[in-house]
Specification:
This protein is mainly β. The protein is built from one helix and 20 strands. The strands form four sheets. Strands 9, 12, 13, 14, 15, 16, 17, 18, 19 and 20 form a ten-stranded antiparallel sheet that branches. Strands 3-2-6-7 form a four-stranded antiparallel sheet, with no helix packed on it.
């Protein structure tokens, strides 16, 4: 293996280009790495054995890497495969201290499911995993998203969550509070790869935007698209609701890169400097 160790001194809150998401080199963030001129074929890139999205931007190839929330700080590397050789490009991840959020859930089964609930949750997992493991080769033109719903940004990504004082998984998306029935629109072109009603997520839609970039829309009151449907930016996906594990009507919005949950706000230009309102 030909190893070229290129340590990138990545400073959080830097955007490399208008067509790329906001770069934030922290657990749960995104790293954009330039790979070379588009005059050469696009390479295949892997991070932690998972395929990475490649984007053409300003006549250069870029790898857009999702960083798992569980990642340790320090040096990491991607593997770039081209013309029969593999090159390693190293980059640094810095720490981020996500705040804690304490939530009271009246439906105690949404915190501690009973045996029948656990069977349902287990039976739903394959369909969700199939959606999240989707990989399609189509080119991705840009990674600039619009907000899928108009509302108050109520819970940011990455919060350390406690339900009824019990520690649970960190908050995996961005919550937007809005009245039941508020329209939810596709933030970017894509294809509907899954719709369903799931125990925790409630009424759900998953979109495939290409090359492992998947977005999810949870807790909907109504779904207005079908699996296999092609949508454009602004196409109505459904309406805000409070199905699944919720304390009130809102959209929970997830974005996945290389099978990794990342902060959706990094894809929305108008949120680049916007802070969510304090968590109640």
């Amino acid at each position: 293996m030909n190893k070229l160790l290129l340590t990138l001194l990545l400073v959080p809150q830097i955007s490399l280009s208008s067509a790329l998401p906001k770069q934030l080199a922290v657990p749960g963030g995104i790293v954009n790495i330039e790979l070379g001129s588009v005059e050469t074929p696009a390479p295949e890139v892997f991070f932690q054995d998972k395929r990475v999205l490649i984007l053409e931007n300003d006549h250069r190839w870029f790898a857009v890497i999702g960083i798992p929330l569980t990642s340790k700080t320090g040096q990491h590397a991607i593997q770039v495969k081209t013309e029969g050789k593999t090159t390693e490009l190293a980059f640094d991840i810095v720490d981020k201290d996500y705040p804690a959020q304490y939530i009271t859930i009246k439906n105690k089964r949404m915190v501690n499911p009973n045996p029948d609930d656990l069977k349902r949750i287990s039976s739903e997992r394959p369909a969700i995993n199939k959606a999240l493991n989707t990989w399609t080769e189509q080119p991705v033109e840009d990674l600039l998203f619009s907000l899928p719903v108009k509302g108050r940004l109520s819970s940011p990504f990455g919060l350390k969550r406690f339900f009824n004082n019990q520690p649970k998984n960190p908050h995996s998306g961005l919550d937007i509070a809005a009245s039941t029935g508020t329209a939810i629109s596709a933030p970017a072109p894509g294809m509907v790869i899954n719709t369903g009603s799931y125990y925790y997520n409630g009424n759900t839609v998953f979109l495939d935007h290409g090359q492992g970039l998947i977005s999810g829309y949870f807790h909907m009151s109504k779904i207005t698209v079908k699996a296999g449907q092609i949508v454009e930016q602004g196409t109505k996906l459904g309406e805000v609701g409070e199905t699944g594990r919720v304390t009130g009507p809102h959209l929970h919005w997830n974005v996945y890169l290389n099978k990794t949950k990342v902060d959706p706000a990094l894809f929305v230009p108008e949120l680049s400097e916007t802070k969510t309102e304090p968590v109640q």
